[in-house]
Amino acid sequence: MFDQLLHGFSIALSTQNIFLVFTGAFLGTVIGMLPGIGPINAIAILFPIVLQFELTPSSALIFFAGIFYGSQYGNSISSILLNVPGTSSAAVTCIDGHPLARQGRAGPALAMSAIASFSGGVLSIFLLILFAPYLSKLAIDFGPAEYFVLMVCAFTALTSFSHGSFIKALFSAILGLAIATIGIDELSFGGMRRFTFGVEELGDGIDFIVVVIGVFAIGELFLYLSELSSDTVQKIAPLNKVMMSFKELKESFAGILRSCITGFLVGVLPGAGATIASFLAYSTEKKMAGASGKFGKGDLRGVAAPESANNSSAVGSFIPLLVLGVPGSETTAVMLAALITLGVTPGPTMLTDQPDMFWGVAASMFIGNLVLIILNLPMVKLLAKILLIPRWVLMPLIAILSIVGVYVLNGSEFDLLLMLIFGVIGFIMRKTGFPLAPLILGLVLGGLIEVNFRRALTYSYGDFSTFFESPISIGLWIITLLSLVAPLFFKVLKKGRTQG
Amino acid sequence: MTRKLLLLASVLSGFMLANPAISMAQEKLSGTECLAPAGAGGGWDFTCRVPAAQLMQKLNLIDGAMKVVNMSGSGGGKAFSHVVTTRNNDEKLIVAASAATATRLAQKVYGDYKADDVRWVGALGMDYGVIVVSKDSPLKTLDDLVQKFKSDPRKAIIVGGSSVGGWDHIKALLVAKAAGIKNLRSITYIPFDNGGKAMLEVISGRAAAFTGDASEVIGQLKAGEVRILAVLSDQPIPALSGAKTAKEQGYDVVGGNWRAFYAPAGISDDAYNYWVSAVKAVAGSPEWTALREKNGLAEFTSFGKDFDAFVRKQIENVAEISKELGVTK
Amino acid sequence: MLILSLVYCVSALSLDADFNPVNEKFYPFVLSVLMILLSVGLMIWPSAQATTWPNWKNFQRIAITFIAILLYSLVLQKVGFIISAGLLMAICMWVFEADLKWIAPTSLIIVVSFYVVFDRMLGLNLPAGILGFL
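Output (structure tokens, whole complex):
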């Protein structure tokens, strides 16, 4: 295996491929900073160039992987600095990243994001190399019933977002689930339109990014306006140190490791996705930190966990792609379509047909992550300065970024109106103390919970025992229970200790 | 001068299988646009970006670059109504289409719009339908599957990558119908996000059979994970070695997912013919042939009037079976 | 909140389908019941958090921004990106108390650079509108 990896490096280190990884990572970062366009657009737009230069499939995939990573990092930049997440998984980074930026700690937050992404990425590449063939079996064994239980398990992450009223958090989450049911139902005969209230455009459902940009960016804009020049002016504190302290780095490290494993496993499953990985990692870390953390109000660990998880889930998602030929995310689906056009037959034979590809990609992931951290750590200082732009330029700029991002998503003016409505909802929710994170969690899980629930029951002809049949489901139920009970148990334990 | 010669050569190569009477004497259009009715990265997007934008420029069929615009919404319905209502006379516009476009027109997903509301230009290739089972499946032939449909439908759940009532579902039901099954709703179909994920359901043994396109199964077929029960083509397909067609097994069902273009209804005949010959030239070019084969698409060329008739026929068939299924009323 | 939940519940029940877990009606119904229960729960145990609503001046600012974005969405297709986004930017800057002399040049530069990056460089189409000749 070591030989193969070396061979992989010899492929990845060719001048052309280094150039590709570098360009990909750079373009990806820049594109990722712009909300609304992500790696999917970048790959589709750049694809004709790949054809033009007649790149080999390995080189093309190396290029794409660079774009993929770069754009994930770029996304976290706009999430932290401006509270404008470009993808759903970056929304989790906003929760702690943006408060940090407001406290003048944009530098450490960005640096932490770079370091966590790098560590998560590199560690998960080891996992990829070591376990790829075994883990592909996991992807096959996961049926609709197992996915349903996994989503329920992810849903318990909710409990970690309920500072204050648990009822409010739960209501937010269920509102998210309910919003996800809007649109044409693919599982019913003739595609029933649900909750569209006769509005043609609602047929396709509400795009996730529209809601996220609405509640976060536009909601933030309104919130800022509502407090303008009153006593509670929330000024962005002057920039402090660029780097975090060594102690903080040490504190985060175990979390990065845990999040990396969670992210990787979730990434391997073609039906789950990076957002779920980020949420699970975030809530685990929050629970682990207990009362000692400032999670939700700006904790570096709250940036480290989702960043590590979403990078490692990106690596994980290459397993079903490369080993089974099944794309796990929209991004890998686009990559696969591109590879097909280059003459690669997707499927289990890809590893034997194109051994160069697997090892070359694995090696170039190392290099890509290295390039990103080299590219980005020195940039942190410069990027953090964006916040020094006077607010009368910065805030309108956020508005323009949001409206452009939402528009280019589907080229639809209707989405702009929706974004505005969600901006108002986000504003009211903040004012009345409803947490936003559960809404996003519900929205992400909504479609997946329902669709897998119904698929599973269709298989079993309505028999609910299908959810308790496989060892995987039972294991996941146990984890779900533990994550609900464990915090209580810790509390009792602590009480006992303080009293005794 | 050399440019003209090149143009001539590329056009001639396209004419090997086409009608030489159509001339390209007309001025080449500039500022052309291809509308992909879905977001970046899908089949329609590919149809616009590669055969249209890239090859038409490379083969010198258009003047300058072709702009690709993505307009997703209502499964292509948004783009369709956009073309009919606001771009009806735009001679510089073509739109990517496929069997899914026809299916949705037949099922009135696009509201009251009909095939007449646009002009069908031509098709570039066809991804024939297949029905596939896992390598360990007790089902050996299409007859076995049909028997299972009749005797124990609960153990004959089929899966695919399109929604309920979508083209993958319909293809399987066309087979069931050809076998004389009356209650098409007795056959359970579960949709997944894409063909690849649906196929995992078959490989794991949760579902009995997969209905999809040839290009989706080639990989798993080569790895020996799945077996093809039937290909829904007229002739056996070389890339799917040894797989029998449904016709050979006594079920007269042919169906596949074609890649094609339509243009607005209000354009002049000259403009229409211009696009027909441009698509013809691409379809006949060695560049496209190579790409088409890599993408697992079989040769399928149909242009102008012939293609128009083909689309109408398909819409008729789908409308009929959708009615029986209760998808449309 | 309760009203919202009830609307959702009623429209869930009015879906034309059999009541069966596999069908498209069951799941939204479960959600709506939960939402109603939670809304009632919140009325019984209101949370302690005090809400400070914006003062009148800031409320006006929010309203102006809201209307500006609303108008932007409505005229974008016809007027085109550069003009409508330029105006939106200018209004937002005014709301944020920008120095008047900076408003015009800043919004122009920012909006044009957005147009160049998205439309020209990335090939993502922003409507050109009445400046279509550019």
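Chain B is about 40% helix and 20% strand.
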